[in-house]
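I am writing to request your help with a piece of structural work I have in hand. I am sending you one protein, given as its amino acid sequence and as whole-number tokens for its backbone shapes. Kindly check, if you would, that the fold set down in the tokens agrees with what the sequence suggests. You will find the record immediately after this paragraph:
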Amino acid sequence: MTGKSKVFICMLLCGVFGGIISTQAQLHVPSSYALIKRVVPGYAQNFIVQPLAESEARDVFEVEGNKGKIILRGNNGVAVASALYYYLTEYAHCQITWNGTNLNLPVRLPVPAKKIHKTTPYQYRYYLNYCTYSYSMSWWDWKRWEKEIDWMALHGINMPLAITGQEYVWDKVYKSMGFSNKDMQDFFTGPAYFGWFYMGNIDKWDGPLPASWIAGHKDLQVKILQRERELGIKPVLPAFTGHVPASFKTHFPNAKLKQTNWNNGFADTYILDSEDPLFAEIGKKFIQEQTKVYGTDHLYSADTFNENEPPSNDPKFLSELSARVYDGMKGADPKAVWVMQGWLFFSDRKFWQNEQIKALLNAVPDDHMIVLDLNTDYEPIWKRTEAFYGKPWIWNMLHNYGGNNSLFGRIEAVATQPAEALNDPKSGRMVGIGLTMEAIEQTPVLYELMTQNTWQNKPIDLDQWLPQYLFNRYGVKSKDALDAWQTLRTTVFNGKDIRDGAESIITGRPTLDSAAVWTRTRLNYNRKDLLPAWDKMIAAIPACKQSSGFNYDLVDITRQVLANYGRPIQLKWIKAYHDKDDKAFGRYTTEYLNLISDMDKLLATRKDFMLGPWIADARSWGTNPGEKTLYEKNARNLITLWGDADSPLHEYSCRQWSGLLNDFYKVRWQKFFELLKGSIETGKEPDFKLFDKSISNWEWQWINSSKAYPVAPAGSSTVVARQLYEKYRTIMGNDLK
């Protein structure tokens, strides 16, 4: 076979020219071997990869031992990777997560005594959310993406959202229509805000976007898609939903445009009416240009009204609009399948009544649309829509909002509800499960648990699964660690009363209240009930301290306990302030500030909880000092104010990170305490409105400043956690009674 022939066949396998809509993909054996070498480089010679005939309608894998070798069979790369991960977790007791990996393999690998055969009941295993690309992935390079794609394949993901490099396509399409560089600079946001730019919520903010970014991320997306397709992963690419530059009205004065506003402190954006002939023309151009550069697997994401209400609730209007959006895809790709986020049915339920939902969905042929029930573990929309009126749909866990650090989840729901829905006659055409969190790289237990559903059609028994998860994670069996997690299961992970994890008052803009707009401090458990988990994790240190996963969990649980303690101390200095007791006020505000510093020191021991890497990764994309400054500003802004100095979204994406705690949150509280101390001394009531204005101006100055923060962890997680336990545990036990 000639080199050119090999390349051509590989391109066909990878879907460069577009394949069929089915999720079935042929196995590309060299790619599977390459993945094994990346995951377990010292043991790759122990594995043999073999194709598995596609006799089944769903992905399938086998694991078998033969003459000291481990044979991994699958119908595609994802199936083979899943077979590898099944072997690593079930036979070698290993684990691979964002926050701690255990690949402590024995010199001689255990060989399975019998053949294991697994078939997934789910055609699709979806992954990612537009927001994830901003809150977690803004600054990823190829090295980081390569790790994530391997993680996807190992965990059975075969249908990820893939929006990297879309600005390149937009630039090509609009410039072919006569738009200038200035037009596009006024259109594109800074990189940290692409998630909302792609959804049509904002334009221009925190730009202008450098040309080097556009070119660099086009090349990055080509690599991402090539690797995904080699492994049998079918990415979901965007489609045109009507979002156009503000200058569109200048270039096309007769165009039918709708001016809309996201109501979060940003300027209006412009949506081209789907009735306008230009809508179909641009939609076709977009997909054609995208396909030319990135190929296609015929799966397209399009969300027409993300947190923006349609101009009419008339079912006829909504039906016609939906049909035109689909026609825009079909005009360029007759095999197009519209993958719709069902978030609008949750976030704007007053507008989206059953009649309106039905009209929007039924305008598209059933086999050309898939609905993502985006937040199923909290509110299953499928139950009130007759399972989306016949459309194929996917059960998703959303879990995290804004990348906030909070131990939280609905562990029982994730363990049981996907299989219960699958087996419910009323669930209609449930074709998959997925992960649609706004941010990743936290709470690994829920993601291991959710992906465990992929290869079974029955609920997961947590009594069996949790001990195995901990053994794989820590590399040892520890009763103390298991006892700690049984407490976590009934406290932070019971998730029954609130939508998402609570923030700590520490990260809120200073207040005398118990909460703020985006600092919602209500917990789904009593603070004191979490303390036994901390006790047991500290007790588990001698047995588990060599484990990276244990060190992460120890820091995270200690962080949560300390973050929760912020409120009881706040109550003490609030009382002292109202009592005009300056001595007590000084004592308790000092304790409060020391608590923040202690948290900062703890979090500095784990890279997972550090501001430095986030800013350094942002700056690394800059090709000159100006670009580096722009990207650093984007990085600082998103996790603090989110917008300008008057942003209503401040703290939405707050992070309990080392560096951010000491330099941002602590400084704000110091300024607030100076205000209150002055009030105690003078007897005059503080001007809180004036303070809020001054603090937002200070925040804006911080965002526009530059500072290099550490990128490597400092100190021992176990040593610092134990020190803080000895300092706080007795006090907490008394305060939280």
Q: What stands out?
A: Residues 483-735 form a domain with the Four Helix Bundle (Hemerythrin (Met), subunit A) fold (CATH 1.20.120.670). The first helix runs from residue 3 to 14.
